[in-house]
User: Which sequence fits this backbone?
């Protein structure tokens, strides 16, 4: 694991948040403070999280009151971060490095337990395998959605329940469009009244 790459990913993550914190919701789902290898970065990230909860905004000046954090270092991070466009990718890279460090630590602990006779080799391998599988499951659960092949959808079409057949399915987003002043609002109101009262709309 390249320590320079780890440090750069951490710096780009923090710098990206200082440039544009609009993607904070996604970043905080990916990272915890202890995912950073540097104690300084842990402290800065913790302060960012607190400031985002308090005011929804961060920049070097806002963080300048954090004990032990040098505003010049924060300004330098902003200046050396090219863009916040890849912020979640940087955060995922930080998390990946953190997971690698944690797994190496667990592997060393397992090796020590085998050498000390606390566990057999098979038991140690089983424990590490269990941890790896649990991490894979956790990672999958963090994804905001699951990609599904289009063929899966076309092979299993969902039957439609209609509010007004064949125009308005239930639980659907509908758009009524037309020229200004053409009566769209009145049509929408009439449809809504008919549905609310269980009445037929134009048969």
Assistant:
């Amino acid at each position: 694991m390249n320590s320079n790459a780890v440090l750069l990913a951490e710096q780009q993550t923090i710098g990206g948040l200082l440039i544009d914190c609009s993607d904070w919701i996604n970043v905080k789902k990916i990272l915890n403070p202890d995912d950073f290898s540097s104690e300084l970065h842990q402290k800065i990230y913790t302060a960012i999280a607190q400031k985002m909860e308090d005011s929804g905004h961060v920049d070097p000046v806002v963080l300048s009151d954090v004990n032990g954090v040098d505003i010049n270092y924060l300004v330098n991070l902003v200046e050396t971060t090219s863009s916040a466009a890849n912020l979640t990718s940087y955060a995922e890279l930080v998390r990946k490095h953190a997971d690698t460090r944690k797994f190496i630590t667990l592997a060393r602990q397992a090796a020590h337990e085998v050498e000390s006779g606390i566990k057999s080799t098979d038991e140690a391998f089983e424990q590490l395998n269990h941890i790896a599988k649990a991490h894979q499951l956790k990672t999958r659960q963090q994804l905001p959605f699951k990609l599904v092949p289009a063929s899966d959808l076309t092979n299993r079409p969902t039957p439609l329940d209609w509010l007004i057949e064949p125009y308005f399915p239930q639980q659907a987003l509908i758009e009524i469009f037309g020229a200004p002043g053409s009566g769209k609002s009145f049509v929408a109101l009439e449809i809504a009244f008919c549905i609310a009262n269980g009445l037929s709309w134009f048969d």
In short: The chain has a mean pLDDT of 84. The CA atoms of residues 60 and 73 lie 9 Å apart.
